[in-house]
Specification:
Elements (H helix, E strand, L loop, with lengths): L2 E5 L17 H9 L9 E4 L5 H5 L4 H10 L6 E4 L2 E3 L3 H21 L4 E4 L21 H13 L4 E5 L6 H7 L5 E8 L17 E6 L5 H19 L3 E6 L16 H18 L4 E5 L5 H17 L1
């Protein structure tokens, strides 16, 4: 079996402007890391374009219309203080969602044992009604609904280790017992959600971490709250919102993880996927803004995927 890596040239055309942390250089750094000899068995795939029906699985028509309306013919327009769009941003967002859906299809078809989607814009802050926090559409949420409807499964687990809480993903599923959302994140921090008391209908598991927390606290949160919840849920598909901005060198937050932490949690999630989901695991890029730390963390993550 193989690991697929989904990406597309249009992701580099999503122009966020000079100085914006969510820049095309992020994917260039990842691409360079994954071209090293140890990743020679990685199967590269071009991301397809998501259909509007797929976007509609999560997002309201008025939100899709708003994004399309504000795409400029030239230059950059901000949807909110953090979220710029430029001429190719809508196309990039459609291919980002399409990547994760295609990866889900590949693991169900047995073409891949697992997959990593190197996409931008990221997605986990986009709610069913609002684009925000660098995110236009919620890639992982769309993939979860695509998997449930296209492949006839009931239970999907989404695990998010980005330093920022995935408020959009939580909002999409907080009343849906068939989708589990579990997150470690710095708290209090942007976007302000993610308290341990936010439990949805018993399907939301937040493990907030204080500023300055490192490997010990992160692994304890995973071992004591997140991993047991996923194990008990017995998902048929495991999706990962893989944000690497909890790294100690990242400028956008104050956690102190290192590359080995991302390798460790990847191995743990792969073990759960093997136990309950026939190994089906799909990971998609969220945050990570210090280029060397991002590249090395993705390399650690994908290195574990290749071992599965």
């Amino acid at each position: 079996m193989t690991t697929h890596f989904y990406t597309h040239p249009v992701f580099l055309e999503h122009d966020t402007g000079a100085g914006h942390p969510e820049s095309p250089e992020r994917l260039r750094a990842i691409d360079a890391a994954l071209k090293r000899p140890e990743f020679s068995s990685l199967i590269r795939k071009e991301s397809p374009r998501a259909t509007l029906d797929q976007i509609h699985l999560v997002h309201a028509q008025k939100q899709i219309d708003k994004v399309a309306h504000f795409i400029p013919k030239e230059g950059i327009i901000y949807l909110d203080p953090d979220t710029p769009v430029s001429p190719f941003s809508l196309e990039a967002a459609l291919h980002a969602a399409g990547a994760v859906c295609a990866a889900v299809d590949a693991v169900f078809a047995g073409e891949a044992s697992n997959a990593f989607c190197g996409v931008r814009p990221p997605g986990h802050h986009a709610t069913p009604e609002t684009s925000m926090g660098f995110c236009l559409f919620n890639n992982v949420a769309i993939a979860a609904e695509h998997g449930r409807q296209r492949h006839g499964i009931r239970k999907v687990a989404i695990v998010d280790f980005d330093v920022h809480h995935g408020n959009g993903t939580q909002a999409a599923f907080e009343k849906n017992l068939e989708v589990l959302y579990a997150s470690t994140h710095q708290y209090p921090w942007y976007p302000g959600s993610g308290a341990a008391t936010e439990t949805g209908v018993g399907n939301i598991f937040n493990a907030p971490l204080r500023s300055g927390a490192g490997s010990a606290e992160f692994r304890a949160a995973m071992r004591e709250r997140i991993l047991p919840a996923v194990d008990k849920f017995q998902p048929e598909l495991v999706l990962v919102s893989a944000g690497f901005d909890a790294h100690r060198d990242d400028p956008l937050a104050s956690l102190n993880l290192v590359e080995d932490d991302f390798a460790w949690i990847t191995a743990e999630l792969l073990a759960l996927a093997k136990r309950h989901a026939q190994g089906r695991l799909v990971s998609t890029l969220e945050g990570g803004y210090e280029l060397r730390a991002l590249a090395d963390s993705v390399a650690a993550h994908v290195g574990e995927l290749l071992k599965a």
